[in-house]
Amino acid sequence: MYMRNRLTIGLFGFGCVGSGLYQVLNQSTLLNANIKRIVVKDPNKSRSLPDENFSFDKNVILNDPEINVVVELIDDADAAFNIVTEAFKKGKYVVSANKKLIAEHLDELLDLAKQSNVSFLYEASACGSIPVIRNLEEYYNNDSLSGIEGICNGTSNYILTRLNNELKSFDEILLDAQEAGFAESDPTLDIDGFDSKYKLQILILHSFGLKTKPEEVLNIGIRHIKTKDILFAKEKGLRLRLISYAKKVEDRIVAFVAPLFVKENSFAYDINYEFNGVSIEALFSDKQVFTGKGAGSFPTASAVLSDVSALQFDYKYEYKKLDSLNVELADAIEIKAFVSVSDSRNLDKLQFTTVEEEYASPEYSYRVGTLRIDQLTHDFYRNNPDLFIAFYHDADVKIVSNIDKEELIQEEMS
Ligand code: HSE
User: Does residue 234 fall inside a structural domain?
Assistant: First the structure.
């Protein structure tokens, strides 16, 4: 029989996921674990447990030698960074669900966890209850993966689903999503694609062994969508989905977050409301799709529980692909795109390489064709609220900068 570590947990945060974890841990009979201390920020907030269960000083957990696992489930990525790095230095294992923390500090966190020889697990950080990170680490532990894409943000998927079904206003539906409790406290992270990008960065790390910085990966969101864009999609039998996309093209990784038009045969077409889905494409297995709840108290807590359970056996991510796969981010690509505007003069803000469809009227115009996406930055997207930009899911993606570079090299040699 395997020896299981006895886990004494210090829990940071008792919000949606923290309180969910408290309940699922209490219901789990297989775990050799207990929560010894809970540290929260706000002493005045009313909670489902009596006040004596809570402390407000992080050192109550960090300085307790009996606590060997820190579970970090707070909203604030900067405070989380301090907690997690101090926990590493004290030799404690860490479980986190904080995608922003991980995406912004990948290098430092991985180095520190390694130096301290502790496990750092974060299954709940990408796609909530869907067991994707450990699958990428363990099952796809070789170089056969060719692409991964997902609906990784429940809030934006909820909004897109309801826009499609009800043709109501974006703001009205965003409010409902926030009230339902799965939007981030700052909805910008959800609707502008940041949350989807942080999750994509984590998936890219475990799929292709590539560390990325948030500013290197394009994210455009759904905030500027117009009802007429939904009608355009419906007329063509398409649906809009905010997709976190990464594809290996030779030794380059094409990566972005953007609204995509998906066809009925796409994995994403029937993933509705707050559900998430991930499609993994590998050389020999072809496509595999996981769907499930990507947000919410118990679903997210179930992924945290699985990490805690793995720590009983000292499980660590090995990041094997970091040392073995030699890939880089593609810096410029060309893809089939749709741009719509209310003021037709704004259509020329983006240069299409080719145009295959165009429509103009005084209050709504659009253009469809191929676009080099290095013209787009997040700031361009934010500063042009009249432009709704979406790509086509089934379109070929062409890496243009690498071709240019090769042509240049050949020209220089000839
Ligand atoms: N705001 C996130 C979402 C929560 O909507 O998916 C889960 O990460």
Answer: yes
Parent domain of 237: 137-293+331-413
State whether 50 and 36 are in the same domain.
yes
Q: How far is the centre of ligand 1, averaged over its atoms, from the C-alpha of 295 (Å)?
A: 5
Amino acid at 308: V
Condensed to tens digits (0 to 9), the pLDDT of residues 348-369 reads: 999 999 999 999 999 999 999 9
Determine the distance separating the centroid of ligand 1 and the alpha carbon of 273, expressed in angstroms: 12
Residue of 101, 184, 291 to mutate, ligand 1, most atoms within 8 A of C-beta: 184
**CATH at 123:** 3.40.50.720
Q: Which atom of ligand 1 is nearest to the CA of 276?
A: 6
241 membership: H or E segment, kind and range: strand 239-249
Would you say residue 109 lies in a domain? yes
CA of 259 to the centre of ligand 1 (A): 16
The stretch 172-198 carries a mean pLDDT of: 89
Nearest CA to ligand 1 atom 7: 295
Q: What's the CATH number where 343 sits?
A: 3.30.360.10
- Residue 274: inside a domain: yes
- How many domains in the chain? 2
Give the C-alpha separation, 120 to 110, whole Å.
Answer: 8
Q: What is the DSSP string of 362-399?
A: SS-EEEEEEEEGGG--HHHHHH-TT-EEEEETTS--EE
List, by residue number, the catalytic residues. Answer: 199
Pocket of ligand 1 (CB under 6 A): 128, 153-155, 182-184, 190, 195, 294-295
- Residue pair 277/267 in contact (Cβ under 8 Å)? The answer is yes
Residues 117 and 160 in one domain: no
Same structural domain for residues 78 and 177? no
Q: Does 381 lie in the same domain as 306?
A: no
Asked if residue 254 belongs to a domain, the reply is yes
Does 37 share its domain with 173?
no
- Asked whether residue 89 falls in the same domain as residue 174, the answer is no
Q: Three-state SS for 354?
A: strand
Same domain, 244 and 167: yes
Which pLDDT score, from 0 to 100, does residue 410 have? Answer: 53
Compute the average pLDDT of residues 4-19. Answer: 95
Tell me what percent of the chain is helix, strand and coil, each rounded to the nearest 5.
40, 25, 35
Average pLDDT over every residue of 43-70: 97
Closest CA to 68 of 85, 93, 34: 93
Write the DSSP symbol of residue 21.
H
pLDDT digits (tens, 9 = 90+) for 196-209: 999 999 999 999 99
